[in-house]
Amino acid sequence: MLSILKSALGQVEREAWVRFFIAVAGLSLAFAAAIFSTVFRQEGNVVATAISASLALLIAGGVAVTSVPYLARRVALVRMRDAFDYDITREGMVYLGVALAIGVAALNTGNNLLFIVVAALLSGVLVSGVASAGVLRGLELEISLPAHVFAGKSVISRLKLTNTRLGAPSFSISVAPPRRKRAGAKRRWQRGVWAFPPGPPEKQWLRFPDLVWKKLPESPDLGRIFAGSVYFPYIPARGQATAEVELKFPHRGRYVQEGFGVATRFPFSFLVKTRRMALRKEVLVYPSVEPMDEFFEILPMITGEFEAFVRGRGYDLYRIREYLPEDSARHVDWKATAKSGALKVREFTREDERKLRIVFDNPAPSSGVVPQAYERAVALAASLAWHFATEDTDLSFAAPGYRGAPDIYDFLAYLALVEVQEGGSLLETLQVTDDYNVILTAQPRGSIPTALWACSYFVFIENPGESGG
C-alpha cells in the first residue's frame, strides 16, 4: 500500500514538473515573439509586428489558462488554500452606490475633501473584508449523525463549532451547505486513441495514442443531508458552541454532504463571506418501518400460519392439553378426546423453535412492476423484518445479492439501496429448510416451486394487497 501511495505521489510530482517546464518554454517563446515585434516595429514592418505581438499574447494567454491555475492549486500554504465565497448584501450595494456617486463627484469637481471621503468609504470595505476573514479563520466544525436513520422519521444531529484562536472571539457565524455549482458538464483533455479507418477496433489498421477533449464522467447526484443553516451569535476564544438540528429524510437511500460553509456578515454586513470546509458526511437512510395498511392486513395471516407451521414441526410428544380455537384440527388427539369428552390436542417438544426467514425476491425491470408498488414492497419487507426482530423469533433473511449476517440492520441497509435489476428469480435456487418463509416476489404463481407452498406465505409485489399462503 505504501509503495502504491509513493508511486502515485511521484506521478503527481512528475506531472507538476512537466507543467512547469511547459509554462517556462511557453513564456520564453512569448518573450521572444515580443522582442521580434519590437524589432519589426523599429524597421517599419507593420504586418510582421502585428503577427509577432499577437503570437506573444496568444502564447502567454495559453500558459495563463492551462498551467498557472494547476500550479496555483498546488501551493501548500494554508492561507492560500482557504477558499472564500462572496455575496454582496443589499446594504453593501447601497454603500458601494454611495461611494461610487461621491467618487464621480470628486473626479468632476476635484475637491480634495470628497477624495478623502471616498478613501474612508473604501477603507471601510477593506476593514470589513479583513475582519470577516479573521473571524472565519480558526474555526473547526464537527458534526455527529445518528447511526440508524429511517425514512420519514425525524432524528437529531449535533453540530459543534470550535474557535481555536487564542485571544479573538468569533461573531455572527452561520453554518450552511456550500453553494451549488452552476450546472454544466466539465470537459478536460483525456487520453484516447486516434484510429483509422473509423469503425470497429478489429477493422482498424492504424492506431496512435491521442488526447481527446471530452466530458468528465458525472458523479451521481446524491441527496444532501443539510438544507438550512444554523446560527451561532458568539463563540469565545478557545471555546465552542453546539446546536442540535432536526433532520428528516423523505426517501430511503444514501445521502451525502460533500462540504459545508461557515459564513458571516461581521462586522458591517456589506458582504456575506463564506469559507468552504471540506468535511464529507454520509448517512444511509433505511426504509420506513412504520406499519402500512398492507402490514395490518397480512400480519394476522402470517402469524397464524407461522404458529401452525411451528406446532406441526414436532416429533416427540410433550403433553396433551385442551383444544384452543387457533389449534389445527390435525393435532387433535381423538383417543384422549373420547375418554375425556372434550377436545384434546397434542403438543410436541419442538414447539419453541420459531425460525422465520424473510425473502425479498427482487424483481427485474422486465417484470413491469411500477415504482410505487416496488417502494411499498420494500417498505413492507422492512416493516415485517422490524416487527419479527422484536419478537421471540430466530430470524434470517434472503435476497439477490444479499451477503449480510442475520442481523436486522444489515438487511435494512440492503433494502435502503436495493433497486430493480436483471437476473433470475431467487426462488429457483432457494433451499427448503426448517424455517418458515415470508416471500415477497413478483413471479407469477405458476412459476413458484411446489415445495415452497407448504412452508411459505407469499406477498406478490405486482399488487401489494394480493397475497396468499
Explained architecture:
The protein is of the alpha+beta class and 469 residues long. 38% of the residues lie in helices and 26% in strands. It contains 11 helices and 20 strands. It has helices spanning 2-43, 46-66, 68-73, 78-81, 90-109, 112-136, 293-311, 334-340, 371-389, 408-417, 450-453; strands spanning 84-88, 139-144, 149-150, 155-163, 170-176, 187-196, 206-215, 230-235, 240-247, 253-257, 260-264, 271-277, 281-286, 317-322, 344-348, 355-360, 394-398, 436-441, 456-460, 467-468. It has a 5-stranded antiparallel β-sheet with strand order 1-12-11-5-8. The chain has a 5-stranded mixed β-sheet with strand order 17-16-18-19-20, covered by helices on one side. Strand 11 (260-264) and strand 12 (271-277) form a beta hairpin. Helix 5 (90-109) packs antiparallel against helix 6 (112-136) and helix 9 packs antiparallel against helix 10. The radius of gyration is 36 Å and the shape is elongated. The model is unreliable at 1-9, 76-81 and 463-467 (pLDDT under 50).
Short description:
The protein has eleven helices and 20 strands. By secondary structure, the protein is α+β, with helices and mostly antiparallel strands. Helix 5 (about 90-110) packs antiparallel against helix 6 (about 110-135).
